[in-house]
Design goal:
This protein has 7 helices and no strands. It has 211 residues and is an all-alpha fold. The termini are far apart. α2 runs parallel beside α4, α2 runs antiparallel to α5 and α3 crosses α6.
Length: 211
């Protein structure tokens, strides 16, 4: 009997111990999302700050700024708690962020700035999805809407540069401060215009569905 009991004890000791169930921690999720996007956004900013960004590059930066604007504190009691299904989607977003982050690093190594911008947009998309599960009322224009507004502003700025060049017949050196916003002080006019377009498009879509 003793041998049989000892054998059972040995068998139990050899069995792998299952890890404790992971407690869903919203602070982990929110912190991961904001930190990843903040890091990528900064690297992209540094990459393009020495020149005049294209409309696409500027729009990618503006979009990431919009996603990070007013980022909530993890202990904010007004935040929603994602359901089990939503947690699964958030997990998928986390995995997508890591894949795009790896591609972003490869593009940085190869000095492919537009590819970096594309990955910044993809990461911003996934971070925005995560945020919306905690803040369902979070209003964010699409990248296309922001790019449309930025492109109009960019064309106006280029016209202004061309005008000054013609007047002075000199080369123009512009500070990147004219073109780039910071996470703490994004281009509010650009975001406001893009948000208005987004709301108008959503209203038009609802009206079309009701007809």
């Amino acid at each position: 009997m003793a041998n049989e009991s000892d054998n059972q004890s040995d068998h139990q000791r050899k069995q792998p111990i299952a890890p404790p169930p992971r407690v869903f921690d919203r602070s982990d999720m929110l912190m991961m999302a904001s930190e990843r996007l903040s890091q990528v956004r900064y690297v992209f900013f540094v990459q393009i700050e020495d020149g005049i960004p294209t409309a696409f590059q500027r729009a990618a930066l503006e979009y990431s700024d919009a996603v990070l604007m007013g980022w909530p504190d993890s202990d904010d009691r007004s935040l929603s708690i994602p359901t089990a299904d939503e947690q699964a989607v958030i997990k998928g977003c986390e995995q997508a962020i890591e894949r795009h982050l790896n591609d972003f690093r490869l593009a940085e190594r190869d000095d492919k700035t537009d590819d970096m911008g594309d990955k910044l947009i993809q990461i911003s998309d996934n971070v925005a999805q995560i945020r919306k599960f905690y803040q369902p009322g979070f209003l964010l224009p699409t990248f296309s809407e922001i790019k449309r507004v930025v492109s109009e502003e960019w064309d106006e700025d280029m016209d202004s540069v061309d005008s000054r060049v013609n007047d002075r017949e000199l080369g123009v050196t512009m500070s990147t401060d004219t073109w780039l916003s910071t996470p703490d002080n994004p281009s509010e006019d650009t975001l406001a215009r893009a948000t208005q377009e987004s709301i108008a498009n959503q209203d038009a879509g609802r009206e079309a569905q009701s007809e």
